[in-house]
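User: Hey, my collaborator sent me this sequence without any context and asked if I could get a structure. I don't really work with proteins. Can you help?
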Amino acid sequence: MDASLQLDISNRACRMLGERNITALTDTTENARLLTALWAEDPVYDWLEDGQWLFATRTQRIDYDPGITPDFGYRFAFEQPDDLVRVTALSASEYFTDPLNDTAFESGYIYAPVQTIYIRFVSEDPAYGKDTSLWSKKFIMYGAAWLAKQMAPRLSQSGPKIEMAEKEMKRLLAAAQDLDGLNRPTTFPSRGSWVNTRTGRGAGRRGGSGSWN
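Assistant: No problem. I've predicted the 3D structure and written it out in structure-token form, which is a compact way to encode the shape of the chain:
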């Protein structure tokens, strides 16, 4: 990410909490220290994980891996894309006319009863979800709010301030999703099991769907 954008998002987070701006993440202030630690944990992944973002959506055809023969269950295994954040649609049709419900996700693979699958997913690839030129201002504001929500308990003992951070984070997430969804065509709903399918990434991270202004 461009350093100037990273600093801008960081200072938006500081202002949301009523804290002073930083001049760089290398500052010796508590704000800079906390922000440096948060950026080191790849917060953009979390932001992308919190929505079915159209700007980050990628579609791929995947053929089964002939080197894997399941002992039972679904006959064909497909390697999950490396940049997958969350799946929004699976189909045996390239036109996604019908959802593919008979699937299982295990250890970086998708198992299905067909030899070829078509997958639509939120991607963290630099040409998709991590291409900052595609980010709307509302998505940037949500990212700042997400950072502020993580910082709030460490900078303040005020319950109301922490609650306000949580509330604003959720509000901005909804606003960013609404704007992103304006250009979204009608599709069939995603399955709950399609969310957070990437092994080791979805579970156990600092939770944080939300928003702010």
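In plain terms: Residues 3-52+127-185 form one domain. You can pass these tokens on to your collaborator as they are.
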